Amino acid sequence: DLKNANFNNRNSSSKPVAANPVISEARSNLQENQTLTNRSNGYNANTPLQERDENGGFSRDLLINKKVDELPEGVDPTQKEYYLSDPDFYDIFGKTKHEFYQMPKWKQQNEKKQYGLF
């Protein structure tokens, strides 16, 4: 009967379990490989905030015609236009973000495709 089961029983040996050296080495290698992958993609985990402007937007150079793995950390690839700085957004689309998001979705998609933000 599971209602009366006692899961707090410990075995008689209360010695700490030693870390498995094979697992520790594999974990270390995985972290090292991830760092190398990020560097080879041109992504530096320590700099995303430095790439943002004072309002939290990104420069157009970091967003236009970029593949998912080329985008700055945290950028939703389906909404790249959202992450543009306000001046860049206006220069590209000729309207404010508010005006853009008031348009029908199909018009938004067409403009995003036209300007390399799809």
TrEMBL record:
Polar residues bias spans: 1-15, 32-49
UniProt GO molecular function: actin filament binding
Domain HP residue range list: 52-118
GO cellular component: a single term: actin cytoskeleton
InterPro entries: Actin-binding_LIM, Villin_headpiece, Villin_headpiece_dom_sf
UniProt superkingdom: Eukaryota
Alphabetical list of SUPFAM superfamilies matching this protein: VHP, Villin headpiece domain
The protein, known as: Villin-like protein
Biological source species: Python bivittatus
Disordered: annotated span: 1-20, 32-58
Alphabetized PROSITE patterns for the sequence: HP
GO BP term, pick one: lamellipodium assembly
Organism taxonomic ancestry: Eukaryota, Metazoa, Chordata, Craniata, Vertebrata
